[in-house]
Each structure stands twice: as structure tokens, then as C-alpha cells.
Amino acid sequence: VRVIKSLEFRTVKSLVLRDVDLTDTTVGKLKEIVKERIQTVPGFKPYLNGNQDTLKIYVSAQGTKSSNLVLNVGQDDEFTLSDEGRKLVECGVGHETEISFFNWEAYQAYKTHPDVVKW
Questions:
Q1: Neighbours of 88 (CB within 10 A)
Q2: Which helix H or strand E contains 36, and what residues bound it?
Q3: What is the pTM of this model?
Q4: Domain count of the chain?
Q5: Which segments of the protein form a coiled coil according to its record (predicted)?
Q6: pLDDT value at position 48?
Q7: CA angle 38, 80, 32 (to 5 degrees)
Q8: What CATH number is associated with residue 12?
């Protein structure tokens, strides 16, 4: 899971989740797992005050990667995991799928000018 604190500053940290049952875990449960890990895993202190609320598929195994290094911009209907009750496998999540976890409102603002980067 790619935990994104800021899209403009490209602040991203990867969180590797092992032994997640894709046929049993729902989108809502994955959000809970990620939020709990952010609280407990060392190195995520800057992300504690983040208001991440959305999961979106960044790339699937054997799939094409987005040219955007932070987030897969576009195709929101296809790649956004918005139904909290759906199983991950039903959403197209498979082995080695990279998922971004970010704030939806910040993403909407970022979509208007994805080429603007603040340093």
C-alpha cells in the first residue's frame, strides 16, 4: 500500500502487507488494517495526522504503470475502491497489486494540475 501524505510534495511511503486474504478481506477492513499499521509501524510518524480516506489501485501485477509517480490519475470509476463492503478480489485486487491510500479532496484538487510539484 502506497500511503500518500501529500500529492503536491510527493510524500509517499510504502507499507507492505503480508498474508492478506483477498477473498475474505473487504475494502473497509483493508482501510482499518492500514490505519492501524500507520499507528504502530515505525517510520510512519509523519503520517499519523494524515486524513487518508480513499483506496485506489495504482498498478496490478503484469499491468502497465502510470506515468505519474505518485498516483494513478484518471480512471477513477475503474480503479477507486469505494464500496466498503466489497471483497478485494471482486475489485480486481490480486497478488502484488499496489494500492494507493490518500485523501480524496486533495486528489480532486491535484487532478486539476497534476504537473505542479512543490518542493
A1: 22
A2: helix 27-40
A3: 0.90
A4: 1
A5: none
A6: 87
A7: 30
A8: 3.10.20
